[in-house]
Write a structure and sequence with these properties.
Dihydrodipicolinate Reductase, domain 2; 6-stranded parallel sheet; 8 helices; Rossmann fold; alpha/beta; nucleotide binding; 14 strands; 312 residues; single chain
């Protein structure tokens, strides 16, 4: 496999881990990092013996692919520069601050035949990846994603901060257009919505009830999926998957017994898998696991939820 020249723009809390993974992967040659905080950039660059770039424009011509891990408000302007100049882009979620910006970036990547992947990291959770031959046609989905308050994500509301992970997963699972959305939520610790509950109704009849909170005393990321042949439980945090099906026997007259199987996965490294998949997509020409179009679809749904919360 040909080695790709890579760089990371934004090496704060999350970006420094991107740099670690690029430095670790054989398919990548990490050539540099860039951050508005030069002290931070120099520290991360020294760890990997790579160049520090003060201006991300200077990376054009020096790299084949980049991770962009800057604040959401900067996603569009930074990603646009690289997509205009023939560089493949892995962009952290959410894709952009506006739908117009997201649509432009998706179109730009398609026009220039570039891989454009969005950092919905939960798609690379091993419990999710194990569902490939289990998930058939969800009928009802319930998800809870709760966490203590973290000012690092408070530049956006809980929909774009936390719930968008589950929105992306559910849209991918169901594979049907959203027919109706019913949302409620309130700000508590910040000026933005901190806790919200959303009901998504799909054209194929599936219903999803989604709750997200960033004002809890504990962390929990769970999803329950009901389909005609199974009840599926996912514990994202502990990497556990439960599959419960109707058995051949009866536990009561006329009521089938339940056959259950539980799977526990190694913690693994979802970010390494995400970046590895991005590089693999570049080499093979395959569609990214989470494409720009996927990121845009999740953002469209999140913005409709925001509209209802604002108006309601």
């Amino acid at each position: 496999m040909t080695t790709l020249r890579t760089a990371v723009i934004g090496v704060g809390y999350l970006g420094k881990f991107h740099a670690q993974k690029y430095a670790q992967l054989p398919a990548s040659q990490l050539v540099g990092v860039c951050d508005s905080n030069q002290e931070v950039a120099r520290t991360i660059a020294a760890e990997h013996d790579v160049e520090v770039y003060r201006d991300y424009h200077d990376l054009i011509g020096q790299v084949d692919a980049v991770s962009i891990v800057v604040p959401t408000q900067k996603h569009y302007e930074v990603a646009k520069v690289f997509l205009e100049n023939g560089v493949h882009v892995l962009l952290e979620k959410p894709i952009t601050s506006t739908l117009e910006q997201g649509r432009e970036l998706v179109a730009l990547a398609e026009r220039n035949n570039l891989k454009f992947q969005i950092g919905h990291l939960e798609r690379f959770n091993p419990a999710i990846m194990a569902l490939e031959n289990v998930l058939v046609e969800p009928l009802f989905i319930e998800s809870h994603r709760i966490a203590p308050f973290n000012p690092r994500g408070a530049d956006v509301n809980v929909i774009l901060d936390l719930m968008i992970h589950d929105i992306d997963i559910i849209l991918d699972f169901v594979g049907s257009p959203v027919k109706a959305i019913h949302a409620s939520g309130v700000p508590v610790l910040s000026n933005e919505i901190d806790v919200a509950n959303v009901r998504l109704e799909f054209e194929n009849g599936c219903v999803a009830n989604v709750t997200a909170s960033r004002i809890s005393m504990k962390s929990e990321r769970r999803m329950r999926i009901f389909q005609s042949d199974a009840y599926i439980t996912i514990d994202f945090q502990n990497k556990q998957l439960g599959i419960h099906r109707k058995g051949k026997g009866e536990m009561y007259p006329g009521v089938a017994e339940i056959d259950s199987e539980e799977h526990a996965f190694d913690q693994g490294d979802a970010l390494l898998s995400e970046i590895g998949a991005f590089l693999q997509a570049i080499h093979t020409g395959a569609r990214p696991v989470v494409s720009g179009a996927d990121g845009l679809r999740a953002l469209e749904t999140a913005f409709e939820i925001n509209r209802q919360l604002t108006e309601g």
